[in-house]
Amino acid sequence: MNPIAGLLNFIGFLLLTHAVYSAHEHSALFANLPPTAAPTGSPAVTSLPTDIVLETLASVVVLCVGIVLASPPLKPIQWRVWAGRIEREERMTPEQKARLGNRRVGGPGTSGNPFRVLEERMGFWDVRSKRKEFADWVREGGKS
What we know:
Blueprint lengths: L2 H29 L18 H21 L8 H12 L3 H7 L15 H4 L7 H13 L5
Helix pairs in contact: 1-2
InterPro entries: EMC_subunit, MMgT
Membrane topology: Multi-pass membrane protein
GO cellular component, one term: EMC complex
């Protein structure tokens, strides 16, 4: 995770925790008062003070920015782009994969293609290998 994103998430979490605690204390303070002890005609007894509301909103914004910065890159929306990236990564050497790091389609430490189990099921005809065998056969002159 990006250190800036981690710092923003930590600060946002602290601000949100403090805002929630302040809102709880504010509501608990006026919950124990009898109705006659409350200031007459004051709507502030039932609503939160402006500083608590602003702190809550600021903490949510800081948390949102931190979460967005910490999130991994999005996968392409188009299936052909995503599948092409997976196939190119499968042909890479381990050094090239290490250089990609977190930018890999499946993320670090994963094999990349989540559908590999379905594509390599035993008993099914492998179209790509047969197509390659046919192309090799044609290049050799079409003789058995």
